[in-house]
Design brief:
The protein is α/β, with parallel strands linked by helices and 331 residues long. The protein is built from twelve helices and 15 strands. The strands form three sheets. It has a seven-stranded mixed β-sheet. The two termini are 38 Å apart. It is an enzyme of class 1 (oxidoreductase). One of its GO terms (molecular function) is nucleotide binding.
Length: 331
């Protein structure tokens, strides 16, 4: 039984705490958050203790691994502290606040032996996305030529959150950048158009939507469509197009029931409401892979290097959107 501490009792901390508590190979032993009441709300139902100090997770003898869901500016510090204390790490995206910090983190981790450090791009573990990627990699649809990713949130987070999020490309689109690399490999060029169309977010110095085009070293092209608001719900779709066919990942719903009546044909239930439910299986399988890496020595994926690469794309997209130019990507 792997004894796990969760740092951060916010939205993503709640996801990880619930996933750890429900996993048959894991035990939630500690939740850390400076807002102690929030930590207690996550910990007490599972018999875990709480602390306002994240460093208790690194120094406690009864903690084997740490899930880091603290604010992005603290990720590098917390990853290093955990790794130096001999704790395995699963850190939420982005791996650091900037490419410079992420590269420095990778360089520092390379200087000493440490347990596995894994980055939380959970979509790689979504059963549908993982199968689509596997079919493409196996050559089922021939030469991969195009990838389309649609990722639209049902509603934006709070203005307070957006102010410290790092921007839409680092906070939201970064999942799609990692997903694109998962399907296509290394990316060489980025072109992005940012949108500011939501009046409720007019005062935020950030885009509320974006369309991004990526060119891969293979010659394949990805188009990513994002927005912070979507009237139809949490819209998550993928199309992988190849020379011999295509693979599609559709939105998931509560059931597959369709209704035909006087109001319309093929009426279906709404999409699963947000990442908490849409990617519940992905978070579970991600945690299983993390546990396997610790117990069996299997390679972690995504790695810190994957986290660096996704941040490179995020910063390139931000630069492209603000300058109206295509950005050539360098590591």
């Amino acid at each position: 039984m792997l004894r796990i501490a969760v740092i951060g009792a916010g939205r993503i901390g709640k996801v990880h705490a619930a996933t750890v508590a429900a996993h048959p190979q894991a035990q939630l032993v500690l939740v850390c958050d400076p807002v102690l009441e929030a930590a207690q709300g996550l910990a007490e139902p599972h018999g875990a203790r709480t602390s306002a100090d994240p460093y208790e997770a690194f120094t406690s003898d009864d903690v084997d691994a740490v899930v880091i869901g603290s604010p992005t500016p603290l990720h590098r510090e917390h990853v290093l502290a955990a790794a130096r204390a001999g704790k395995a790490v699963l850190v939420e995206k982005p791996v650091a606040a900037s490419v410079e910090e992420a590269r420095a983190l990778a360089d520092e981790l390379a200087t000493f032996d440490h347990p596995p450090v894994m980055v939380g791009f959970q979509r790689r573990y979504d059963p549908s996305i993982a199968k689509a990627q596997r079919l493409g990699a196996e050559g089922r649809i021939g030469r991969i030529e195009q990838l389309s990713i649609i990722s639209r949130d049902p509603a934006p987070p709070s203005v307070e959150y957006l102010a410290v999020s790092g921007g839409v490309f680092k906070d939201m689109v970064i999942h799609d950048f990692d997903e694109a690399r998962f399907f296509l490999g290394e990316i060489t060029h980025v072109t992005a158009i940012g949108q500011k169309l939501d009046p409720a977010l007019a005062g935020v110095d950030d885009f509320d939507g974006a369309v991004t085009m990526l060119q891969a070293a293979s010659g394949a092209v990805a188009v990513i469509k994002n927005t912070r608001h979507c009237a139809t719900g949490y819209d998550q779709r993928v199309e992988l197009f190849g020379s011999d066919g295509e693979v599609m990942v559709e939105n998931l719903r509560g059931t597959s029931v369709r209704v035909n009546d006087a109001n319309g044909s093929d009426q279906e239930e709404v999409y699963l409401d947000f990442f908490l439910t849409r990617y519940a299986d992905a978070y579970r399988d991600e945690l299983t892979a993390f546990i396997d890496a610790i117990n069996n020595g299997t390679p972690v994926s995504p790695t810190v290097d994957d986290g660096v690469a996704a941040l490179v794309l995020a910063e390139a997209a931000e630069r492209s959107a603000r300058t109206g130019t295509t950005v050539e990507v360098g590591r």
